[in-house]
Batch of 4 targets.
Target 1
Amino acid sequence: MDKKITVLRGDGIGPEVVGEAVRVLEAVGKKFGHNFEFTYADIGGCAIDRCGEPLPQKTIEDCLAADSVLLGAVGGPKWDGLAGDKRPEKGLLGIRKAMGLYANLRPAKLFPQLADASPLRREIVEKGIDFVVVRELIGGVYFGAHTTEEVNGEMVATDVMPYAEHEIERIVRVAAGIALKRRKKLTSVDKANVLDTSRLWRKVAHRVMEEYSEIEFSDMLVDNTAMQIVKNPAQFDVVVTENMFGDILTDEASMITGSIGMIPSASLGDGTLGLYEPIHGSAPDIAGQDKANPIGTILSAAMMLRYSFDLAAEADAIENAVAAALDAGLRTADSMAPGCTLVGCRAMGDAVVQRI
Ligand code: NAD
């Protein structure tokens, strides 16, 4: 298989963690006989420094011309003083929009080797945590009208939460597609006892899911879901929900799996082009010191193979290599535990590459 991957290293630890993920992809390509061609483009602070804007047109073109995109992280104190639309983070929102990405996937997977890093009790963790939250990314209350006005002598603020049927239908289809590649269980999360948007969400979700009889499908109210994620996370396989509920639940779900440096993410739209990135930021406090944990970015590369290129065995190879490196007791500083061996970003990348 020949695939073009555009690489956006970004700022801070971005270049370090992305460098390791690229080496892992090269090792997978060599082992399985694929040719991955990498094109590098600027985004965020480094793009501001070189081109005067966080998302140069050339970067958009390189991303749209690729089969998939791998991103590090953007931002840092150097650019904090810039006006809102000139800030590095604007590049992120811009590229998601330009690529038409409306589905955000965040796995919550606890490697058993890191069980002690989870804030949950051991007996809950032991049942296993391995689910994916699929969050609608470009609709709902974050994108509805926002107004603040004076009414009867006091200020009144209103945020509108619109959802159209097609927006619900397409995200439920993405989630169903992911469930088919996993344990075939899908939970749709809403607040249908109160919100009209949720009642429409539920109706459309049920209509779509009639086409997927092989998937075990159910609804759950968002408040109950927040409880169940800490009480019995083993029950979940794929969770699909709207933008704001997803924003909150994905942070909760990532917390229960330990270090922020370990967690990958994917953003998808129609078709197979996706944007894959770790959930952490540019960590300016440790940038350039070979201390960053590259595993979140390496696992993002595994998601790219699984969801954009349909290469399940190759994605498994990466995930197994990461597990084997952790089994060998190797840890970066953020996840260090007694009895383990402290390694840097590069050495962790080496350890994964060796185990592919
Ligand atoms: P951050 O995620 O960069 O860092 C939070 C803490 O976690 C820091 O102590 C950092 O050292 C640590 N950490 C993060 N990733 C790590 C890794 N891979 N290995 C080891 N430790 C790691 O969040 P922040 O400090 O709030 O933000 C720093 C900058 O990143 C800001 O400019 C912010 O706007 C930006 N940011 C970017 C993204 C993105 O690009 N998607 C996301 C969040 C924040």
Target 2
Amino acid sequence: MNNSGKYFLSAFTPSFSGRPPFWLMRQAGRYLPEYKELRKKAKNFLDFCYTPDKACEVTLQPIRRFNMDAAIIFSDILVIPHALGADVRFEEGKGPILKPVQNSKDLELLSRQNFASHLSPVYEALRLTRKALPAETTLIGFAGAPWTLACYMIEGKGSRDFQLPRTMIYKDPAFFIKLVDMLTDAVSSHAIAQIEAGAEVIQIFDSWAGVLSEKQFSDWSIVPTKKIVSAIKKAYPSIPVIGFPRMSGSKITDYVKQTGVDAVSIDGSVTLSWAKEHLQPHTVVQGNLDQLLLAYDKNAMLEEAKRILSIFGDKRFIFNLGHGVIPETPPDNVLALSELIRSYA
Ligand code: CP3
């Protein structure tokens, strides 16, 4: 147990050994009937995110059922572009739709003027959630990394490979640099404000880091993340930061060495033996059960979870998925997984 009394934070204490703490990305969401019930009553997804008592309630739902060691505040990475003045909508079955930001003129329409007041419902949700959570449960705040936010802003929607934002790096570097600088400041402020409202850990989601070349990854995932981690550490030196450069394979070693993150979340783009050898000696590793296996094959999932636990063992490890829980996941499978992890000795 960590001296704060929080089991989750033990993973960051080098001398700790024991059952790894666990939580699951997208642990609140459409696989839970009680989420869908509450979601139905909201006008739209963003409105749902900006209603503090609803956001608090859905953050608590998975904790009541499965008692994870940490809760992640219910929000979205796209609240940052929205708070900067970008037009952001979520369409049923389509995902996010934004008015694209593709040149310096489009950027002039964005500003920090209403940023903090726009995001105040997220901070209120954090305050409510911290009060309502069991004392031993850690509250995680989060933000998208600048590159991943730039992907959605430039493209205006989801994409398989985000070619347009990737070519923009070469075609209009002056614009691209301004956009990423603006986002780096915005993400830093949002992370610090979440800590002030009760977040005890911050996770930075770089969901589209995997499409970047080696040089682009260094310039647009590592460098901005390093600035964000420094800003957080300057204000709150003891708050752990978890980085998630999704699908980044062997590029994760440089990410860990250079950004200053306290933990790195991994997915299926690396083997467990590689991560054990190249990452775990330097940082806390988080991951990486296949979220599809969790949804579709309970027995095979439990075997794989045992393999992950046996490889990473009892220190410097946080059990999680390779990516978020999908809506098709039977809650029963999540219960079986949480029981397995809890009984791990
Ligand atoms: O439980 C948690 O993890 C906390 C809540 C959370 C959400 N989104 C809620 C959500 C978190 C941490 C996110 C992060 C997020 N949002 C990311 C990074 C992680 C990742 O998945 O790569 C990204 C890229 C987004 C952007 C986003 N939001 C997309 C592409 C979509 C549509 C896809 C989908 O799953 O529907 C969303 C919508 C969204 N964000 C939902 C939830 C629960 C579903 C919308 C709904 O319930 O109507």
Target 3
Amino acid sequence: MGASPTKVRHDLLSMTPEKLRLSLGEHFLKRGQPDYRIGQVESWLYDGLANDFTEMTDLPQRERRGLQDAFEIDQPFAKLLQVSQDGTAKHLWLLKDGELIESVLIPADRRLTLCISSQVGCAMGCTFCATGWGGFKRQLTAGEIVGQYRASQRWARENEYGPITNIVFMGMGEPLANRRSLPTSLTTLNQGYKVGARRITISTVGFIPGIVALAKRPEQFGLALSLHSPLPELRSQLIPLELRYPLPEVLQAVEDFKKDNGRRVTLEYTMIEGVNDGLDLIDPLGEIALQLHAFVNLIPFNPIPQNEWTASKRARIQEFADRLKKKGVSVAVRETRGRDIDAACGQLKAHAFAQLEKTNS
Ligand code: SAH
Ligand code: SF4
């Protein structure tokens, strides 16, 4: 006889609340424990944000050990924290297999927005994005997605940042391409951690099957489309996925999403000087926005090490905003946050390894 096979401990964070109840129900039934034990564990996980079964102090020692043998809480470990001059806080998380991901907390007025990652790296290869240049490593598990929220919420509570009010899937990765874990994590954030669907936004570069799947869900999650150019040819130079999912089809999918979901969609437009900020682009951009009744976010490009591009001039961004407004488009210029710590859009993972080496030396 060889050594006994290693027992698989199922990750509680990767389960939807429904699955969690079932698994815990079976577990406690086998152990002759009352049903209310399920509620105790749920409360420790969803309200107490417990990282470890030893924290669950209202359970008998024996039961804490029993849980430990059967399950795990696969919580990412905070490897590095950087706080920007503007209060933006970026966490670098170490995953069980040694991979690293980042998430960012952005305080503004009475809001605290958490920007989370959905993949290690990204396969989409957008030319203006540091994550895209790094390539794709692997999908995140639902637990690793939810784990960024739990750990950030704990940190925010302990550091007087207040509770997280909004979650945006705008960190590393294309969320809709994580077809297994994204749906589970959305359900769990919404039903387990009670983050309202309307406070969760998924940003996509135009992955049509994912848009279609999201539209079928009953909850009103928000959708943001990374547009960056109203013209397919220019767009394909920035976003290689344009060649697979051409803009007219993407826009149709977004239109259908809006009909099913009932919510206004956001168009994101990163403004790069001399690349996609020509005045001739305002008309076609305005047309798309009006057609979709979409909200347009103009985002100054954040420099990345991989190319020489710079942000459009302030005056040009303002001109885009003013002329779009005149056409009746709802538009905002998104202020750049956390640039000094490479926490701004598209900069994630830009220097993560360099920083790690610095902190380790
Ligand atoms: N993959 C998804 C979500 C992550 S990217 C997506 O692309 O939508 C989040 C946002 O940051 C997207 O709108 C993306 O286009 C934008 N972005 C990427 N690189 C950027 C950069 N260097 N400067 C400004 N915005 C950038
Ligand atoms: Fe991936 Fe979004 Fe970056 Fe494109 S912009 S490479 S889709 S993370």
Target 4
Amino acid sequence: MSARKIIIDTDPGQDDAVAILLALASPEEIDLLGITAVAGNVPLELTQKNARKVCELAGFPETPVHAGCDRPLGRPLVTAEHVHGKTGLDGPQLPDPVMPLQSRHGVDFIIDTLRAEAPGSVTLCPLGPLTNIATAFKKAPDIVERVQEIVLMGGAYFEVGNITPTAEFNIYVDPQAADIVFRSGVPIVVMPLDVTHKALVTSARNDAFRALATPVGIAVAEMTDFFERFDREKYASPGAPLHDPCVTAYLIRPELFSGREVNVEIETGSELTMGMTVADWWGVTGKPANALFIGDLDADGFFALLTERLARL
Ligand code: BDR
Ligand code: CA
């Protein structure tokens, strides 16, 4: 089977960084056409720079990185320095990138790429707020039916929320954008907190990254050391959840994951539950499924894949 063409839309973020590294390390399965940065964990100025730092760390400075939207569609930007640190990528000391930022806007890159490639051959992989994707769909409605699939990290059902009691960060930051994407009719695979909270970097798993003894392995271990302090305190869990790499791991080994086809709607009206992903897990509404909502993964298989692939870089 030929490698799947994808665009990663991202707000790095340590876990975004690991998701990008996994994609770059997996050319048999993933053909990364480009990266679009969005404002999220930290402002756009930092996320686009962090995306380039990660490409250079991986040894892929030719990867086209584009800056996209600098704020959500209809709300002020909410960021997460309390999790990811001031730079968004705190932990390792990575040099400032020398590879260029592409001049084209990220939204135009998404539109142009979907128009240039064969219909149904490009998968979008959002790892942050859905602003760039929704803006592209609004600006160029003809591209919507050309998307093969959207595989995204966002939302929660049983785990409910992490930034508010009822909302996961990526969806909360731009609920209007998420609403557009979930109503688009494009096949969607969702990696919600329900599954990512099972992808925990225990000490042993982080030691395995460090033991690679490569710049990539050491940087990933240092990133995890940094952001897991937050999750260990918050959830009293044995390690930090590696949210975003679930997206790229799914493209490589979908059999590691299981979930249900359900209807998902986004709360955009109530301030109390803003950004909630209302997933009809028990099929009580009779509304048609619009997403494969993942609930479980083979965590050992996931970390074995990750370690094996990071070792290649
Ligand atoms: C999501 O929010 C960000 O902090 C992470 O990078 C991940 O994409 C988890 O809620
Ligand atoms: Ca992210």
